[in-house]
Amino acid sequence: MAQSPLGRTLLIANPAAHSGKGAAGADFARYFLGSFSAATRGYEVRLTRGPGDAVGIAAGAVGSDTVLALGGDGVIHEVVNGLMRLPESARPQLGVIPLGSGNDYARTLGMVKNDVEGAFAQLVRGSVKELEVGRVNGVHFMQTLSFGLDAAIALDTTERRAANTSQEGEALFITSGLKILSRAKDGFPCVASFDGEKPVDLKTLIFAVQVGPTYGGGFRICPDADPGDGLLDVCYNVKKPLFPHLLALFGLARSGRHARSRVVSLRHIRHAELDFAEEPPCQVDGEQLRGTRFVIDVIPRALRVVC
C-alpha cells in the first residue's frame, strides 16, 4: 500500500443512509481500519443518531488529521458545516465514502459511489486537493444551493427518500420533477445582484448556485463548475419559458445541453445578494432553507479534501 494520506482519522457514519446500508458500511469501515494498520495513525468510528448530529461531531474533531463522512450528501453537508466551525489551522481534511441516492459531491470529487470497499481503496491511495465551499446566510454548502422549481424538486426528492421510496438517483429526480413542473406558475419575483453589479429583476423559475457541476443525481446544471477555481457557478432563467420548453430544458439538463438555451444564463461569481418578494422554495445540499433575503459567498480553499 502506498503511504496513506489519512493520518489520525475520525469516521462519521449515518447508519440510516441508503435505506439502512450505512450501518453495514460502518461495520465494514471498522473492519477495514482495524485490519489495515497502515491506512491510518489511529481511528475512531462515530454513528449519527439523528439530523444535525454530524455537525457537532465534526466540530469536535480537533486533533484529527482527517474526518471521513460515510453516507449521502446530507451527512457530508453536516460534516462540512461542522468542520467550518473550526479555525483553518485546526481544521482536519475531509474524505467522503458516498453511500446515498444522489451522491453529487462524490461525482464532483471523482469518488466511486455506493461501494464502501472501493471508496476506502481510493482514499488510502488518494491525494489532497484544496477546494472551496459556498456560504449562504451563514450556512455552508459543498455542492449546491438552489431556489424556485429546482429547489422544490430537490426538497420533494428528500421527502420521498425519507419515506423510503424505491426510486433513487436520476429516476427519483425525474419523477419528482414531472410532478413539480406540472404545477409551474409564474416563478418567484427576485432582485439579484452579482459581485456588486447593478441589481436585476428576475422571475425565478430556475436559480442554482453550484460548487460542482451536478445535482439531483447527475443533472449537469452548471457543466463547467470547478470546485477548485475559487468561484461559484450560477444558472438562472432570464426568460419565462412556456411549459413545453420548460420540460425540454429539464431533459436537456441531464447532459448540460440546457446551457445553450437563450432562456438561461450561466456565469461565475464570488458574491450574490437575492431579495425575493415572497419566500421561495430553497434548498442547500438538499436541506430546506427559509427566508426572503439571501447573501451568498464563496470561500476559496476552505477544505483540504482527500480524493
TrEMBL record:
Q: Does the keyword Glycosyltransferase apply?
A: no
Mark the transmembrane ranges: none
Q: Which residues form a coiled coil?
A: none
Q: Which UniProt keywords apply?
A: ATP-binding, Kinase, Lipid biosynthesis, Lipid metabolism, Magnesium, Metal-binding, Nucleotide-binding, Phospholipid biosynthesis, Phospholipid metabolism, Transferase
List residues of the DAGKc domain. 4-140
Q: Which cofactor does it need?
A: Mg(2+)
**Mind listing the GO molecular function terms for this protein?**
kinase activity
- Annotated Gene3D superfamilies: 2.60.200.40, Probable inorganic polyphosphate/atp-NAD kinase, domain 1 (3.40.50.10330)
Query: Sorted alphabetically, which PANTHER family does this protein's record hold?
Result: LIPID KINASE YEGS (PTHR12358:SF106), SPHINGOSINE KINASE (PTHR12358)
Question: Its family?
Answer: Belongs to the diacylglycerol/lipid kinase family.
Q: What is this protein called?
A: Diacylglycerol kinase family lipid kinase
Supply the source organism for this entry: Thermophilibacter provencensis
